[in-house]
Amino acid sequence: MKKNPARNVHLVKGPTNLLEKINLSIDVDSRLYKEDIEASIAHVKMLSKTKIISSSEGKIILKGLNNILKDIEKGKIKFSNKHEDIHMNIEALLFKKVGNVAGKLHTARSRNDQVVTDFKLWIRENSNNIDKLCKNFQKILINVAKKNISSVMPGYTHLQIAQPITLAHHLLAYVEMIGRDRERIKDCVNRLNENPLGSGALAGTSFPIDRLMTSKILGFNRPTSNSVDSVSDRDFVIEFLFCLTLISVHLSRLAEEIIIWSSQQYNFIKLPDEIATGSSIMPQKKNPDGAELVRAQAATTIGNLNSLLVLLKGLPMTYSKDLQKDKQITFDSFDTVHLGLNVMSEIIDKAKFNIKSMREAADFSYATATDLADWLVRYLKYTFRDAYKITGKIVAYAEKNNKMLNELKLIDFQKFDKKINKNIFTVLSSINSVKSKKSYGGTSPENVKKSISKAIKKYL
Ligand code: ARG
Fold this sequence. Notes:
There is one protein chain. This protein starts with 16 loop residues before the first helix and ends with a helix. The longest helix has about 35 residues, at about 110-145. A hairpin with a 2-residue loop joins strand 1 and strand 2 (about 160-165). Strands 1-2 form a two-stranded antiparallel ribbon. It has a two-stranded parallel ribbon with strand order 3-4. Helices cover about 60% and strands about 5% of the residues. It contains 18 helices and six strands. By secondary structure, it is mostly helical. It binds arginine (ARG). Arginine (ARG) binds next to helix 6. Arginine binds near residues 29, 323 and 324.
């Protein structure tokens, strides 16, 4: 039989190879080594303070745990498949380091409260990494926005040119999205920050433990209230996965725009060689693979979020081994979003925006038709609906004559209403159109400048 400190002696026969294979999680949960040791250190300090173990035993175990941490960080440790998960690996290492007293560490705890404690610590810590990457991404978006406060581009609805906007305004929309993503992660961490350690297997413990003490050491706001809930709860994992998923959905939307914008028909963006790929057969091709793969990443994160929801659905209280899958799913989404944020930051940083093409696309469309209707309302006192109808007729006339709105002559406009005067031309260019959108949150360069300062203050 394999030496496994948690394998009960009443299991006379060792596990079959297949059971061992499906049960092993060390390849995945070894990423929790730091948090596992951190939580064990807090636990042992508490056991010693409450005299559940003697202070000399406590000291030996503490020293052992600290040395194991150092050994791991120096790369001296290779985790072993002989022990199914990170908890059993660390415990086995402790036995090697300090002998039989290691057996006292698991007093008044279970792997069920241990794993959920470790995982909360890991998510709390690593949410900071995501926050930093989000912040960096916002910084890059803002930097490009700063250079494009007056760069006009067509704004779309239904992917049809709708009204002119500025490139800065468009990019700042993503700054807002990522800002909400960051707040959502903060909320998630705030909610998860209750300490499950001390819930035992599911019922609590008869030992006189001090859960306030371990909560304080581990930086949790308070202990969790119900031991049954504590070991079964994976809400925090689902919330974290959702946060990651929404980030990747946001990245995917931008990725899609990059892909569209870099197509020959749009020509809004040029991807420098180092962020584009070639084709193995078509020598002229330059493909936006990076953006395409970021777009595809959302499929992974959406799938992972669904996986855990489905896994949890119908799972009876309390712990079942199904829950072991939560780590694999989360690490996968985490790594995916981590890479995605870096890749999109690089793309936005290095992409060359073709301001002229964007401007022309806004000009050579009827993107200022709404401005024309608004002018009729403001200066000729039409109701908006009547102005809308007249403008529709003017656009149809321009289209028929193959002209843009600002290429029409005053007499052309006056065919539709004699009172139209030369001032009409002030609203027909796309730059004047964006300049006029001064309403709060609108696209005027004046507004956008203020929005950038605000975004810098709020997010960077
Ligand atoms: N490796 C396990 C997990 O990740 C640890 C908890 C094991 N608990 C148990 N009762 N077998 O979920």
